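quick q for whoever's on today - can somebody do inverse folding on this one?? i tried earlier but teh output was garbage lol. tokens:
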């Protein structure tokens, strides 16, 4: 039966069972589309990475003897819309059956379900064979339970997949070694040795530019730093295990203006585009730990495994459990505009300047920069979560809605009212000073709460507690914060409010 098989840009899984069977009557369809480049303004490196990776994947398919229809963004046959392209190809090629792998994003899932209703030919959906859980597994796991604690889901995943387990008990007698993972980086170990991927993406970049796609951020097309093939992804992963994993946990939360990546793996694009699978990332890392050739502490390997086996699968489960209503949640009723400097890094706040500058240069910031610098500031300034989300969804190389949304709207902006996070991730400047080297070079004084030189995070933090008190004081994890707030002098409260107002952008 003549079958059309759709491959979306983030379905680049060479190990999928689709590619093992007879390919004679199958046609694979891949397309670079304005539908995908235009739903938010993306970082140019993100668009380039996806299109490069898709082209490399289509070449791999062709080399295996598969029939491939690949539409470039400037192809005259390209209708720039998924539904229209598929209907057109089905008609032109007299297709008898349409097959696709389940999309990870709700909007694409809906689009394909709508298409199914319109098509008169046979239709079949397959699993992507990428994740360690099904779409519904987290919802089933938490059914009837009061809260959605990631930690309990993580224990379930460790047991279920027998990862870092020893006779049914967690390796080392503890599930989580996060307490030992809060070190500030001081450079004494020397510069972390970053894995080098440098490909030339000039032709993909010119095609995108010539098509008039709007984008943000910078790019060096002759030295593109992101892995866009399976081989490069494996190379980067091995490099991480050899040179960086040994300190991953220790410096996971550390920040430094001169080290954009520190000991992080930079594996998120490869994972999210499915060039590599979470299981092989975990297995490779655990093998390095077991080999013992490089001494890797249990806190380092457990910290890394938790991100992928725990957080990544957890976020996906939360997304599928909560969509479509999740997309509109704004429990704290935040309505202010995202500050303009999020788009050009022009701010005298050194932590924000460096985090946003890195994001514009590399389409990357690590977790704590996303959570405790940009996310923290957006939340403290009570920014509309829709605007915060558009920014996160556009700027990062790994941003796909299923993982971006629960992280941004949920964990970072508390817009789901505490489904993902047990309390808002907010802090004054003192946390930033503790975990980074930003404050020593800042024009603001991290120790002052009020006055012209005072660190803006300080007044914003207290002002947030004052203004959101009614919504948050029932949260027992915030009792301490509110009792400290009550100890402030009245005059200081007035000064805090005045100072905070200077950094709050007008309502949208
Ligand atoms: P490492 O620090 O080396 O971690 C290894 C891997 O663990 C990552 O590649 C990622 O796959 C996984 N991981 C770690 N933390 C998380 C998490 N909280 N949720 C899901 N997976 C996790 N991650 C995305 O993949 N896409 C996003 O759009 C995204 N948006 C985020 C937005 C906000 C506001 C925050 C706070 C976090 C977001 N994250 C997102 C999670 C995390 O910041 C990135 O996965 C990580 O920075 C990617 O860099 P890395 O590969 O070097 O990660
Ligand atoms: Fe950021 Fe405040 Fe430190 Fe400046 S002093 S870098 S604004 S935390």
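ok took a stab at it. sequence:
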């Amino acid at each position: 039966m003549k079958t059309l098989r759709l491959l979306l840009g983030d379905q680049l899984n060479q190990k999928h069972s689709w590619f093992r069977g007879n390919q004679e009557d199958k046609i694979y369809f891949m397309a670079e589309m304005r539908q995908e480049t235009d739903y938010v303004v993306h970082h140019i490196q993100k668009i380039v990475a996806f299109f490069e990776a898709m082209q490399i994947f289509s070449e791999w398919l062709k080399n295996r003897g598969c029939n491939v229809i690949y539409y470039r963004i400037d192809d005259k046959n390209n209708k720039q819309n998924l539904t229209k392209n598929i209907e057109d190809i089905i008609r032109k090629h007299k297709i008898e059956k349409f097959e696709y792998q389940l999309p990870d994003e709700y909007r694409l899932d809906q689009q394909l379900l709508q298409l199914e209703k319109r098509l008169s030919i046979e239709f079949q959906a397959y699993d992507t064979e990428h994740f360690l859980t099904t779409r519904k597994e987290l919802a089933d796991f938490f059914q009837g339970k009061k809260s959605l604690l990631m930690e309990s889901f993580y224990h379930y995943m460790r047991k279920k997949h027998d990862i870092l387990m020893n006779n049914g008990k967690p390796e080392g007698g503890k599930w989580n070694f996060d307490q030992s993972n809060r070190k500030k980086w001081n450079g004494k170990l020397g510069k972390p040795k970053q894995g080098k991927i440098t490909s030339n993406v000039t032709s993909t970049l010119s095609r995108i530019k010539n098509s008039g796609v709007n984008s943000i951020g910078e790019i060096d097309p002759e030295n593109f730093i992101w892995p866009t093939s399976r081989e490069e992804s494996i190379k980067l992963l091995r490099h991480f295990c050899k040179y960086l994993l040994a300190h991953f946990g220790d410096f996971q939360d550390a920040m430094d203006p001169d080290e954009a990546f520190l000991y992080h793996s930079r594996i998120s694009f490869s994972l999210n585009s499915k060039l590599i699978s979470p299981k092989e990332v975990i297995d490779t890392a655990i093998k390095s730990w077991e080999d013992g050739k490089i001494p890797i502490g249990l806190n380092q390997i457990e910290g890394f495994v938790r991100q992928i086996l725990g957080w990544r699968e957890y976020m996906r489960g939360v997304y599928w459990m909560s969509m479509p209503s999740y997309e509109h949640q704004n429990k704290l009723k935040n309505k202010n505009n995202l500050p303009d400097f999020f788009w050009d890094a022009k701010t005298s706040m050194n932590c924000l300047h460096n985090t946003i500058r890195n994001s514009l240069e590399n389409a990357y910031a690590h977790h704590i920069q996303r959570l405790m610098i940009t996310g923290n500031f957006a939340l403290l300034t009570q920014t509309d979560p829709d605007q915060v989300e558009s920014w996160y969804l556009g700027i990062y190389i790994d941003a796909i809605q299923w993982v971006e949304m629960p992280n941004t709207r949920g964990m970072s902006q508390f817009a789901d009212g505490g489904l993902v996070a047990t309390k808002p991730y907010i802090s004054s400047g003192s946390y930033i000073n503790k975990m980074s080297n930003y404050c020593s070079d800042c024009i603001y004084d991290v120790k002052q709460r009020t006055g012209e030189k005072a660190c803006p995070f300080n007044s914003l933090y207290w002002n947030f507690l004052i203004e959101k008190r009614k919504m948050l004081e029932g949260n027992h994890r915030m009792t301490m914060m509110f009792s400290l707030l009550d100890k402030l002098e009245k005059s200081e409260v007035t000064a805090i409010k005045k100072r905070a107002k200077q950094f709050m952008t007008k309502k949208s």
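fwiw The domain at 340-505 is CATH 1.10.579.10 (DNA Cyclobutane Dipyrimidine Photolyase, subunit A; domain 3). also The mean pLDDT is 96. so keep that in mind when u check it
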